[in-house]
Design brief:
The complex is a heterodimer.
Chain A lengths: L3 E4 L2 E4 L5 E7 L7 E6 L6 E5 L3 E2 L7 E6 L2 E6 L8 E7 L12 E5 L1
Parallel strand pairs in A: 2-10
Antiparallel strand pairs in A: 1-3, 3-8, 4-5, 4-9, 5-6, 7-8, 9-10
Chain B lengths: L2 E4 L3 E3 L5 E8 L6 E8 L6 E7 L5 E3 L7 E6 L4 E6 L8 E9 L9 E2 L3 E5 L2
Parallel strand pairs in B: 2-11
Antiparallel strand pairs in B: 1-3, 3-8, 4-5, 4-9, 5-6, 7-8, 9-10, 9-11
The chains are: A mainly beta, B mainly beta.
């Protein structure tokens, strides 16, 4: 089983600031990595797939990078609506399609 | 409107079984996989398994093998997740989500609204 590890667990950021979230895979997943945003009481929403491709309708302030085992989600200038929990998930060939434990981005 | 609509909340006793449905609308049902993901209260996302809407083939996480059954009814564009021998640790919100069936694997680009399953005596 591929273990996905996210850091930090919580990130305190002021609106307008940059947020950088990390995700590490226990073995290479190539670029088969997605990021999701989840707000309280809502289903997750796909932000990034293929490690760096924004999903339809996702603002350009969200960007993803990395390949292999190290990945980063960057929010260039946090807006009020961006505060949420973010999860990475691999979708390489080997099930289970594990998620990271999540990073909560909260307002500073 | 492209959406996945799940069945309503359930309350079950320990040892019982539960069925959650996931109805697709606004797109062609086949040509996708439906995944099931659960989230215990205050916890993260846990991937359970998927079903191919082309072949009906399924894959589930080892933890859920023998406990979860994934099926589908093409005629009504609906996927089902049956969970048996419920325990208190099965109390969670259960989500369905779709993945486009490509040459390789893909992300979960559309999610249902979630179904709360509470297991309580």
């Amino acid at each position: 089983e591929i273990v996905m590890t996210q850091s930090p667990a919580t990130l305190s950021v002021s609106p307008g600031e940059r947020a950088t979230l990390s995700c590490r895979a226990s073995q290479s997943v190539s670029s088969n990595l997605a990021w999701y945003q989840q707000k309280p009481g809502q289903a997750p929403r796909l932000l990034i797939h293929g490690a760096s491709t924004r999903a339809t309708g996702i603002p350009a302030r969200f960007s993803g990078s990395g390949s292999g085992t190290e990945f980063t989600l960057t929010i260039s200038s946090l807006q009020s609506e961006d505060f949420a929990v973010f999860y990475c998930q691999h979708y390489s060939s080997w099930p289970p399609r594990t998620f990271g434990q999540g990073t909560k981005v909260e307002m500073k | 409107q492209v959406q996945l609509v799940q069945s309503g909340a359930e309350v079950k006793k320990p040892g019982a079984s539960v069925r959650v449905s996931c109805k697709a609308s606004g797109y062609t049902f086949t040509g996708y996989y439906i995944h099931w993901v659960r989230q215990a209260p205050g916890q993260g996302l846990e991937w359970m398994g998927w079903i191919s809407l082309n072949s009906g083939g399924t894959t589930s996480a080892q933890k859920f093998q023998g406990k979860v059954t994934l099926t589908w009814d093409r005629s009504i564009s609906t996927a089902y997740m049956d969970l048996s021998r419920l325990g208190s640790d099965d109390t969670a919100v259960y989500f369905c989500a779709r993945e486009k069936a490509l040459a390789g694997n893909g992300p979960l680009d559309l999610w249902g609204q979630g179904t709360m399953v509470t297991v309580s005596s």
